[in-house]
Write a structure and sequence with these properties.
The complex is a heterodimer of chains A (463) and B (245).
Chain A (H helix, E strand, L loop, with lengths): L2 H19 L8 H9 L3 H6 L6 E5 L4 H14 L4 E3 L7 H11 L10 E5 L5 H8 L3 E4 L7 H4 L2 H13 L6 E5 L3 H4 L8 E7 L26 E7 L2 E5 L12 E8 L5 E7 L2 E7 L4 H16 L4 H10 L7 E6 L2 E6 L4 H11 L6 E6 L25 E7 L3 H10 L6 E4 L3 H11 L5 E6 L1 H13 L11
Parallel strand pairs in A: 1-3, 1-4, 2-3, 4-5, 5-6, 6-9, 13-17, 14-15, 14-17, 15-16
Antiparallel strand pairs in A: 7-8, 9-10, 10-11, 12-13
Chain B lengths: L2 E6 L11 H11 L5 E6 L12 E4 L4 H24 L3 E5 L1 H5 L3 E3 L6 E2 L6 E4 L5 E8 L8 E8 L2 E4 L7 E5 L9 E2 L1 E3 L2 E4 L5 H4 L1 H13 L13 H17 L1
Parallel strand pairs in B: 1-2, 1-3, 3-4, 4-14, 5-7
Antiparallel strand pairs in B: 5-6, 7-10, 8-9, 8-11, 11-12, 13-14
């Protein structure tokens, strides 16, 4: 190892332990930031030490769920991944994970790199890690103030993927036209996954739909049905681009509300029945993404399926927390498509629920909160007893909910998250569940409150 | 008296939650007992003379804007302009605002002609203007401000034939130079503000409804609504804008 890299590593290690000792947090990005400043070639040098190479997981929704599941599959398959698993998915997060997993001499116990990266960071991550596999799960509008427009983003990703090694595998969601079109006219090996079942399809696109036009020729796409936002079965009348045939697919999908989803899984060489312990169609895609990736790496289907069944939700994405004789269920929603799917899941039962909608506008959430007007809160009509609007932009959320005209629902606003949590717990009865739908930093803040109250363990002490 | 809204290109021009403006106009009419209808005006649809009281158009991605551009210029532009001269109200946001001006000058290639509702033109800019905006405005209601979120690289300059919607105290506005934000001509408002604009700026929403109703003759006095929540959201957004700049 070069002296420069070694110095950067030691510096990063020192920062990480100091930060933990001072209880400043998990040190999920700072050590990496410092190391990369000391040696700009830090990540490329470190990943060379991984005998099985690197995987990059990207997409607007589901990165963390997908890669946490993948980590557990790869672990079971004996591939020992190093994973940036705390949602710190920029380059500094990758560097920090490498620092954490290596000893002082730069020896890594891990054999494969599993990195979730922001869509916009994909080109830089490809350059730095020369991955053997890239997975793109979906592209939705998310924090456009940070990323620029969706089409521009997709074409930048395509360009970066075109520069991959010829032997690299690219796994794409066949149901997302913008993602699937990344595969047209390329020389790498592509694998596609999707949902081959139209029963949950609708004729109309949700308001949050983002990709209505063919990324190749610009014609308006024809849809046979929509499943989730702009995901569905589509065909371009202009150039003939159509949903590709799938290598891995979920068929006979049966949604069981908050309890998850049952489906039949088809993969090269077999089919199997599967119960997915996570709610919503979006989680079916996350599971398919993780399976496609593992199968592409040669993991035995049996190992993959067992790991999926044992899987508990990734940190903060769906989390159940016991609070005395009540329960809190927290589901992250950070953009219209994800939010709509959460609402669809919350309203799938017959009982009326009490919900907190927590909207922050910190940089990690996106400064612009306009997107809440693309969420179909109207789906909540007649389905809620109480709504508590909270977060830095809690009043914006309150106005959105007012204009959604939720009949027979009591609406209160308390911008301070900890007070809103107390309020919510008072609104429900013993044995009942209070549902919280926060944006990213609102989730972190709420989690911090619950850590302080001893209800949950800090995530950096988890797995 | 009823209100009929013409929503221009609802599928193509709806980025950043612009449809919140339609939701707001519809509810604020409904809550006052004013019957309201929304017609979606897609590419290929013609503008019926005198049918609509308020027009709305949002912003779009570049590709979608190109599709809209031909249709707007060839089919809808002239009649739209005539409706506004005859008293119809309009709200056009971001890309819609630019197309309602005289022209758009890209970095390379020919100027793109607009439909000339506003005496304004836009030139391509290198820097993207992104962030919260607060502007002093006569349409701001009791607070005297409008608040929203801008995200544009085009720089728009106003001529004598229209007035700005407001003067920015936080943010960039039309061109990051003269502090103007948006444009007002008769009942038409163009602006870069998302948010959506109308929910947190009920004064602007009611201005459009009043103008739309006034087309039917007589003096219009809208019944007041309970805007407590809207005002709190407005004030919280103003504070947040000052803090994040």
């Amino acid at each position: 190892m070069r002296l420069k890299t070694r110095t950067a590593l030691l510096l990063g290690k020192a920062i990480g332990s100091t930060s933990r000792a001072l209880k400043l947090g998990g040190g999920s990005t700072l050590p990496g930031r410092v190391a990369r400043r000391a040696d700009s070639g830090f990540v490329p040098a470190m990943v060379k030490e991984l005998p099985l190479g690197c995987l990059l997981i990207t997409g607007t929704n589901g990165k963390t769920t997908t890669s946490t599941l993948l980590a557990s599959i790869l672990d079971k398959a004996g591939m020992t991944p190093v994973h940036n698993h705390t949602g710190a998915n920029l380059m500094a997060g990758i560097a920090s994970a490498l620092i954490r997993e290596s000893d002082l001499s730069g020896q890594l116990a891990a054999r494969i790199g599993l990195f979730e990266v922001d869509e916009a960071a994909l080109p830089a991550a490809i350059t730095d890690t020369s991955p053997r596999l890239v997975l793109v799960n979906n592209l939705f509008r998310d924090q456009l103030d940070r990323y620029g427009e969706l089409d521009t983003l997709a074409s930048k990703m395509k360009k970066a993927i075109a520069g991959l090694d010829r032997l690299a595998v690219v796994a794409l969601n066949a149901d997302d036209p913008l993602v699937a079109s990344i595969g047209t006219g390329m020389k790498q090996k592509f694998m596609y996954y999707g949902i081959d079942d139209e029963r949950y399809g609708t004729d109309t696109m949700q308001h949050a739909a983002d990709s209505k036009h063919c990324a190749i020729c610009g014609s308006r796409l024809n849809y046979e049905y929509y499943l989730f936002g702009h995901l569905g079965r589509y065909k371009c009348p202009g150039c003939g681009m159509a949903r590709p045939a799938t290598d891995v697919a979920a068929t006979s999908v049966e949604m069981l509300g908050m309890n998850g989803t049952r489906c039949t899984l088809r993969y090269p060489g077999g089919t199997t029945e599967l119960t997915i312990p996570l709610p919503g169609l979006y989680n079916v895609y996350n599971i398919l993404a993780a399976m496609t990736t593992s199968l592409a790496l040669g993991v035995e289907p049996d190992i993959v399926i067992r790991a999926v069944e044992e899987f508990t939700a990734a940190f903060g994405r769906v989390e159940r927390i016991k609070v005395a004789d009540r329960e809190v269920l927290m589901i992250l929603a950070k953009n219209p498509a994800g939010f709509n799917e959460v609402i669809r899941t919350l309203t799938s039962g017959t009982d009326k629920k009490s919900v907190m909608l927590a909207l922050n506008d910190n940089i990690a959430d996106g400064r612009d909160v306009s997107w809440i007007w693309d969420v179909d809160f109207e789906m909540f009509r007649g389905r809620l007893d109480n709504v508590v609007c909270s977060g830095i932009r809690g009043w914006d959320m309150a106005v959105r909910v007012k204009y959604a005209e939720l009949m027979e629902t009591s609406i209160v606003t308390q911008p301070e998250l900890d007070k809103a949590l107390d309020l919510g717990l008072e609104l429900i009865g013993r044995g009942e569940t209070f549902y919280i739908v926060p944006t990213y930093t609102a989730m972190l803040d709420l989690r911090k409150t619950m850590v302080e109250r001893g209800l949950v363990t800090p995530f950096w002490e988890g797995k | 008296m009823n209100i009929r809204i013409g929503w221009l290109y609802p599928d193509l021009m709806n980025i950043y939650g612009d449809r919140g403006n339609i939701i707001t106009l519809v509810n604020r009419c409904k809550w006052r007992g004013i019957p309201v209808e929304v017609d979606e005006l897609q590419p290929g649809d013609r503008i019926s003379e005198g049918r609509h009281d308020i027009f709305f158009m949002g912003g779009g991605q570049d590709r979608e804007q190109e599709i809209v551009y031909q249709d707007l210029l060839e089919l809808k532009g002239e009649p739209l302009k005539r409706q506004i001269e005859n008293g119809a109200a309009a709200l056009v946001i971001c890309g819609g605002y630019q197309l309602f001006g005289k022209f758009y000058r890209p970095f390379e290639g020919d100027e793109l002609k607009g439909i000339e509702v506003f005496d304004a033109y836009t030139v391509a800019g290198r820097k993207r203007c992104i962030g919260n905006v607060v502007a002093k405005s006569a349409l701001g209601g009791p607070s005297g401000t409008v608040v929203g979120f801008e995200n544009h690289s085009g720089k728009t300059y106003l001529g004598e034939g229209c007035t700005p919607l407001g003067m920015v105290s936080v943010g960039f506005g039309n061109n990051a130079e003269d502090r103007t934000e948006g444009a007002v001509y008769l009942g038409a408002i163009g602006t870069y503000l998302h948010g959506s604009l109308l929910p947190k700026n009920p004064g602007v929403a009611d201005f459009l409804i009043e103008k739309g109703l006034a087309r039917h003759g007589g003096t219009v006095r809208l019944d007041p609504l309970d805007d407590t929540l809207e005002k709190r959201a407005h004030d919280a957004a103003v504070l947040r804008a000052r803090k994040t700049h």
